[in-house]
Amino acid sequence: MTIGCLASASGAVSIAGIHWYAGTGGYVEPNCPCLAICFDNGKCQIMRYENDENPVCIDSSMNVVSIQWNHCGSVLAVAGSLRTANMEKEFNVVQFYTPFGEHLRTLKVSGKQMWGIAWEGGGLRIGLAVDSYIYFANIRPDYKWGYCCSTVVYAYTKPERQEHCVVFWDTKNNEKFVKYVKSLMSITTSGDFCILASKGDETLPQEDAELEAVCPAKYVLILCNSIGTPLDSKYIDIDPMFVTLTKTHVIAASKDVFYLWQYRVAKKLTALEINQVTKTKKEGRERRVL
C-alpha cells in the first residue's frame, strides 16, 4: 500500500488510527473514499480501496490519537491535540472532514489528554474519552431537505443503492413520491418548485454541445415540481456550493462565480410575463458573472 500523505513528512511517525467504512448505511456518492488511515503527525489519507492510486490527502496539523467514521460514511472525525500559534499551550480538538477532504468543523474539548472518540449509532452524538472522563457532544448534521407547496422534500442514502433516495412527502394527503439521484449535492425549494443540484452524469446527453466541448459541464441543476417530476434542467461548469430559487430564476454560486438561469415551466403567462419572456429570448436565458 502506497502512503502518499507522508511524502513530505520527516522523522518517525506511527499510525494513530485506521477505519474502513463498510457501506452499511449507503454511500454519499458512487465510488466514494471510505478507507481512512491517519498518523500521529496529523497526516491522513482516505482511499476508495487499498490500492487506490489517487487518495485524498489531509494535513490536520495536529497530534492525532483516534479517528472514526460516522454511521453513513459522510463525516470523518479526527481527535487529538493542537498547539496554539505561539506554541505555549496545547488543547484538545476534534476535526470533522468529508470523505473528499473538505474541512467541516472544529470542536474544542477541555481537559489535559484525549484518548479516544466514538460515534453514536445514529450519528447524532459523539463520545470523547478525556483524562478519566467521558464527554458527550451533540452533532447537528447538515441535512438535505426543503419545503414547497405543502410538500417536505428530503434525502437519505440506502445500503443497497448508489444513489440518494429523494422523497417528496405530501403532508396534506400523506402521499410519498420517491426519486433516485446520483451524487446529490443539495436540495433547494421555493414556492411550488424544487431544485436538485448534483454532479453531472457523463453518460447523459448535455445541452449546448459546442459550449460543452469548450467547457465541459460537471454539475446539473434539476427543476422538479412537488411530486418530483422533472420540469427543466441545466448543466453548468461551476461548483454549485450555494443555490437559491425564485419564481423565475435559479441562482447558483461557487466561491468566486455565480450563475443565473431563467427556467421554464408549462403555465399560462400574463401579458407582463410574455413581454419579459420575449425580452429574455433576445438577451438570452443564462448569465454567468465573475
UniProtKB/TrEMBL annotation:
SUPFAM superfamilies: DPP6 N-terminal domain-like
Every IFT121/TULP4 N-terminal domain range: 2-140
Localization per Swiss-Prot or TrEMBL: Cytoplasm, Cytoskeleton, Cilium basal body
InterPro entries reported for this sequence: Beta-prop_IFT121_2nd (IPR056158), Beta-prop_IFT121_TULP_N (IPR056159), Ift122/121 (IPR039857)
Residues spanning the signal sequence: none
GO cellular component, one term: intraciliary transport particle A
GO biological process terms held by the UniProt record: intraciliary retrograde transport; non-motile cilium assembly; protein localization to cilium
Keyword Cytoplasm: yes
Keywords: Cytoplasm, Repeat, WD repeat
Identification of the protein by name: WD repeat domain 35
Domain IFT121 second beta-propeller, residue spans: 145-287
Keyword Cytoplasm: yes
Superkingdom, natural source: Eukaryota
